[in-house]
Amino acid sequence: MSNPSEIVNSLRNSFYNGRTRSVEYRIKQLQSLYRMYTEKENELLNALYADLRKSKQESVTTEIDFLKNDIKNTLYNIYSWTKPQYVQKDFANLLDTPYVQNDPYGLALVIGSWNYPLQLLLLPVAGAIAAGNCVVIKPSEVSKSCAELLGKLIPKYLDQDCYRVFTGGVKETTELLKERFDYIFYTGNSNVGRIVHAAANNFLTPTTLELGGKSPCYIDNSAYLKYMARRILWGKTLNMGQTCVAPDYILCTKDMQEKFIDAYRATIKEFFGENPKESPDLARIVNDHHFHRLIELLKSGSTRVGGDYDIKERYIAPTILTEVDLNSKIMQEEIFGPILPIVNVDNVYEAINFINCREKPLALYIFSNNKKDTELILQNTSSGSVAVNDTVMQLVVDTLPFGGVGTSGMGNYHGKYSFDTFSHKKSVLYKDLGMLGEVLSSSRYPPYSEKKLAYLKFMLAKRPGINVGRSVTHILSFLTGIWALYVWQNYGFKIGNWM
Ligand code: NAD
Fold it and tell me: What b/e string do you get for 43-79 counting C-beta neighbours within 10 Å, with b at 16 or more?
């Protein structure tokens, strides 16, 4: 069955039948997904190699083990994440139990991108499963081998009544987006992000958009050149630069530029040898469209490092460009390849101004040992994330939310944030119908009076938060109840009125 309406109706029925409500069921599905990563690791590695010529080390660390560790973390924590979260309360609610219940949204759609074809698709899928949703799983058609493999494997590991792979390109995705979902999670470029957002808008569907953009990298004279060059080159050539949080361009003084270029050149040799094309550790550009787009970008400035390419292999050497025209394409669009332009600024204030005059980046990198300047950038710019003295590694910390801001995205995930993203935070106020509670809250009822108003003002007044445990709350509640009864009695109300 590949008709979007049929898939959506069938999964929605499964959701309403309550199958995904049980935490034990979710655990079984996540364990099965984990098993898929283990049992089919070689097939998955081969598919990544076929699509992107990813090395084993990158495939394991940034895709397969990344996914496995995420599931492990979820399984360690799922009982605590799913249980109700009891919240602080005011005097007025001392006898009540207010809490947050994590409800699954229902039917989620997860649309993945080609650059990390497993991780970017299946990490949010695991979050959606943990939160109790049914899921339509849409791999990117650009990473064809991975899409085909997932279409074959997932039905063997996940319950088909609740989780379904939907393959296809723009035409099929356009049809799919006409359906009603309860949550949409999209990873990809900002233009398609707008299309997805508009489709979600038809049903007011909540959406997470994990988009891209230009991620600046500010470097200053205080940073240790050798380590800085290594960390920037690694982030820029990981997956051949096709990483959403890759450093897009460098901001530095002219003087620093020359030192950095020397260090970068030396590091290329250290990492990839005399001829980087021969290195098994450099992936390849995903397709001809992106390859030709990048070759055009090579013309945007003066080539100081690299610049060579091979059309047959879709290989482009790690490259540095200087004297780039700020109005040229390379400074207007996300590069998404191993080309690194350098833009000169005279000081940290100019760098901040340069960043703030452009769209909000997905990531921002600062290489500096100057705490004052670092803090100045942190406090005066907006970006999805920041790493100081490193690149890309901020997204490995799964206790940090990962996502963009402005045109680089909305919403976030990773670790518990994935679970939260796919959970509706339902507020529940649990009261009982006993007499004591009725006495405490009766002053809200008409006929209104000055006495009732004074009582209400006292009960509802905001006080500094006291985080008392639930048993202490119960004792306090009881005492308050006695006190309230006493006050009420003394104001002339008779207890019999509430009996
Ligand atoms: P892509 O071409 O794989 O597209 C992403 C998804 O959108 C695919 O599943 C595709 O089928 C679907 N799609 C494409 N055109 C569509 C249309 N017209 N209507 C509906 N659906 C459509 O990936 P891409 O967009 O080339 O991905 C690269 C971009 O994604 C870069 O900008 C990168 O920075 C960004 N990205 C962001 C993150 C993040 O986590 N923020 C991660 C990876 C990539």
Answer: ebbebbbebbbbbeebbbebbbebbbebbebbbeebe
Q: How many residues does the chain have?
A: 499
How far, in Å, is the centroid of ligand 1 from the Cα of 189? 5
Q: pLDDT tens digit string along 388-425?
A: 999 999 999 999 999 999 999 999 999 999 999 999 99
Give every strand in the sheet of 97-104, ordered side by side.
Answer: 85-86, 97-104, 423-430
Longest CA–CA separation in the chain, Å: 95
Token pair, residue 253, equals: 């003084």
Kind and range of the H or E element at 133?
none
- Read off the pTM: 0.93
CA–centroid distance, residue 186 to ligand 1 (Å):
8
Cα 73 to ligand 1 centre (Å): 27
Q: How far apart are CA 73 and CA 16, in angstroms?
A: 28
Asked whether the CA dihedral 64, 66, 70, 76 is positive or negative, the reply is positive
Mutate to test the pocket of ligand 1, among 51, 113, 245 (most ligand atoms within 8 A of CB): 113
> pLDDT tens digits, residue range 23-75?
999 999 999 999 999 999 999 999 999 999 999 999 999 999 999 999 999 99
Q: Are 70 and 398 within 8 A, CB to CB?
A: yes
Residue 229: partners with Cβ closer than 8 Å, 6 or more residues away: 260, 263, 264, 266, 267
User: Which of 146, 148, 189 to mutate to test ligand 1, by most ligand atoms within 8 A of the CB atom?
Assistant: 189
Kindly list the protein residues whose Cβ atom lies closer than 6 A to any atom of ligand 1.
Answer: 111-115, 120, 138, 140-142, 169-170, 173-174, 177, 187-189, 192, 195, 210-212, 244, 334, 336, 362, 404, 409
Q: Estimate to the nearest angstrom the gap between the alpha carbon of 411 and the chain centroid.
A: 6
> If DSSP states are collapsed to H, E and C, what string results for 312-376?
CCCEECCEEEECCCCCCHHHHCCCCCCEEEEEECCCHHHHHHHHHCCCCCCEEEEECCCHHHHHH
Query: From the CB of residue 201, how many other CB atoms can be counted at a distance below 10 Å?
Result: 10
